[in-house]
Amino acid sequence: MSDYFYTQSHECFKLEGEKSAVVSIAQYAVDQLGEITYVQLPAPGTHFAKGDSFGEIESVKTVSELYAPAAGTVTEVNGELDAHPELVNDGPLQQGWLLKLELDNPSDTAALMDKAAYEAYLEGLS
């Protein structure tokens, strides 16, 4: 998991190649949300600025906005989540990934947290 970049709103992504990012939510977010019941994702081709809301995730506890961890264009969404949103609970970084972004500027990762910084951030929340 050390190749992931994290946001304070608990979205994360790993790079596949130079400009493609696979966006997920962090395990911490899954633990806070509880059982995921629905995921609303954008259509491929949609462009987002960093921090824009790109969808919603619903659980038995709440509905939460999902925010773009970096600027880019959606190239693919995880269509399996339409019928099986619980895949996010089963493995948010594996089969429960949300979407793929073609990043506008891969150097934006410098402003995000690596795993160690994210874990330190989480410690500060408790």
Describe the 3D structure:
- The chain is of the alpha+beta class.
- It has one domain (4-125): OB fold (Dihydrolipoamide Acetyltransferase, E2P), CATH 2.40.50.
- The chain contains four helices and nine strands.
- A six-stranded antiparallel β-sheet has the order 1-2-3-9-8-5. The chain has a three-stranded antiparallel β-sheet with strand order 4-6-7.
- The longest helix has 11 residues, at 115-125.
Indicate the topology:
Blueprint: E1 4-6, E2 11-16, E3 20-25, H1 27-33, E4 36-40, E5 47-48, E6 53-59, E7 63-67, E8 72-77, H2 80-83, H3 87-90, E9 99-103, H4 115-125
Antiparallel strand pairs: 1-2, 2-3, 3-9, 4-6, 5-8, 6-7, 8-9
Any idea what the CATH architecture is?
A: Beta Barrel
Helix-strand string: EEEHEEEEEHHEH
The largest pleated sheet is described as: 6 strands, antiparallel
Helix content: 10-25%
- Gap between N and C termini: 22 Å
Task: Flag low-confidence runs.
Answer: none
Assembly context of the chains: single chain
The count of strands amounts to 9
- Kindly name the structural category: alpha+beta
In terms of DSSP E residues, the strand content is 35-45%
The level-1 CATH class: Mainly Beta
The dominant shape is globular
Number of domains: 1
> What is the assigned CATH homologous superfamily?
RNA polymerase II/Efflux pump adaptor protein, barrel-sandwich hybrid domain
Major β-sheet strand ordering: 1-2-3-9-8-5
Number of separate helices: 4
The average pLDDT score comes to 94
